[in-house]
Amino acid sequence: MKKKMTISSIQKAKGVTPLVMITAYDALFASLFESSCDMILVGDSLNMSFAGKSDTLSATMDQMIYHTNAVCNGAKNSFVICDMPFGTYTNEDDALKNAIRVFQETSADCVKIEGGDDKANIVKHLTSNGIAVCGHIGLLPQSVRSEGGYKVKGKTSAECLSLIEDAIAIEDAGAFCMVVEGVKAEVAAELANSVDIPVIGIGAGCDVDGQVLVFSDMLGLFEEFTPKFVKKYIDGASLVRDAVINYADEVKKREFPQEIHTY
Ligand code: KIV
Description:
The protein contains eleven helices and eight strands. By secondary structure, the protein is α/β, with parallel strands linked by helices. Strands 1-2-3-4-5-6-7-8 form an eight-stranded parallel beta barrel, surrounded by five helices. Helix 6 links the parallel strand 4 and strand 5. Helix 2 crosses helix 4. The two termini are about 35 Å apart. The model has no long low-confidence stretch (mean pLDDT about 95). The structure holds 3-methyl-2-oxobutanoic acid. 3-methyl-2-oxobutanoic acid (KIV) binds next to strand 6.
């Protein structure tokens, strides 16, 4: 059986072997990902690919807890990260109250929060109260409305400097690892070299300490849009659609069920 990663083994992987993170929102997919992935992220991206919303902003604490429990049930040997949804960590008290809910109501191993230097006080408050935190800097999906879209970061030297300051601020505040999203590859590489904790990239090139993808993107199930950084490992949508067309066709023709499916 696979040995579950710990904060210590995740940190020791930096500079040794790339870490593999994937999202999951339910027990079934989590159980399929468990043997090949080091960490499973219950991302608030579930609001889009699971709940059909246009962004992540309306995800709630209750939803995250429900899905995190499902993932923990399906992947008991996985290191599970629960995203803190938009609006649930705007101040230290709320952040701690909501993160404690995650720890008391699920068996997630840590929470993830979006933001750099501006959220360092929150990271420090959580970590000093026994909540492990994975940071998330660069392109922040929870800021999509205030920024007017999903904007790649690190295009100017000022942005590059501020990203590195963000990374150092959340490392200093106690985050044990961080996700870096939508950042020019050379900047992400420099950023990963500027901190001692693992930097997991998504749309951040390959010179970082690991990668994360949203499972419904990499399985080709989510068809609304495909960011440049996504590799579709299978065309899941076509496979599923064809299978269901086949099923419907056989039902209409009374070809299913056959003798072997009948009591
Ligand atoms: O919500 C999510 O799936 C994420 C990934 C994009 C890293 O935060």
